[in-house]
Amino acid sequence: MSVVAKPKVVLGVSGGIAAYKACELLRRLTESGHDVRVVPTDSALHFVGEATWSALSGNPVSTEVWETVHEVPHVRIGQGADLVVVAPATADMLAKAAHGLADDLLTNTLLTARCPVVFAPAMHTEMWEHPATQENVATLRRRGAVVIEPAVGRLTGVDTGKGRLPDPAEIFEVCRRVLARGADARPDLAGRHVVVSAGGTREPLDPVRYLGNRSSGKQGYALARAAAARGARVTLVEANTGIPDPAGVDVVHVGTALQLREAVLKAVADADAVVMAAAVADFRPAVYASGKIKKKDDGGAPTVELVRNPDILAELAADRAVPGQVVVGFAAETDDVLANGREKLRRKGCDLLVVNEVGERKTFGSEENEAVVLASDGAETPVPYGPKEALAETVWDLVAPRLRATT
Ligand SMILES: Cc1cc2nc3c(=O)[nH]c(=O)nc-3n(C[C@H](O)[C@H](O)[C@H](O)COP(=O)(O)O)c2cc1C
Question: What is the Cα Rg of the chain in Å?
Answer without folding.
Answer: 24
